[in-house]
Amino acid sequence: MLTDRGRGTILHFDVETLYNNVALGLMCTVAALRTFGTSRTVFFREASSGLNKLAFFVALDIFDHLGLILRSAIYMVMYYSFAQPRAIIWQMYLVTYAIMYACTGMAYLLSQMMDSAASQLSAAIFALMCSLTARNHHGPGLLGLFYHLSFARWGLEGFIIAEANRLTGVWLLARCADLQGLDMQVTHFLTCLFSLFSIGLLFRSLACACLYALNRDKRR
């Protein structure tokens, strides 16, 4: 008979998942910088000949999107086999995919605003800052805004809710206490996914706007 004896609490899972978010966010943000970063010269040349900028952006995004689905699956299969969480694997996959979608959106924006070296450093700082503010529930001003736009904040909550929903029996009491301490609710799983996809869409919109507005002199 399978039991939860000897397994960690939600608070322990929270710490482990935070490190997972750092690794996941840093990995996919830095990797996604190449999507537009390596095509800047080609874009400048083709834009001077009348290239449709929106079509260029959407085409690269869709192409990268297909790889994103596969990378999310590979990462989650490996993580799930090592960590062995209670959560259902498809819920963990959805959160992983949503985190990658949000992080790649930020990577697109950074690659439009900075050169290669600066964008890589900024991507690393972005991932670390998001992870540091993932638990700052009541930060003032810009810190609060950064908290609500943090992929780590919503990803962490999504993973924890997926884990907490699998607890039964006497573990429900511990779950309620832990979630109350983390200021989370088990009914907010879809909210976490929606927030992550919204963040990714917001950053993609800003990146597309930068594609139109920046480096106009190089497109002549």
TrEMBL record:
One term under GO cellular component: membrane
Transmembrane segments: 18-36, 56-82, 88-110, 188-214
Keyword tags: Membrane, Transmembrane, Transmembrane helix, Transport
Domain of life: Eukaryota
Membrane-topology annotation of the record: Multi-pass membrane protein
Domain ABC transporter family G: 18-216
Entry's localization field: Membrane
Gene Ontology MF annotations: ABC-type transporter activity
Cited InterPro entries: ABCG_dom, ABCG_transporters
Any single Pfam family the record assigns to this protein: ABC2_membrane_7
PANTHER family the record matches: ABC TRANSPORTER G FAMILY MEMBER 28
Name of the featured protein: ABC transporter family G domain-containing protein
Organism: Apatococcus lobatus
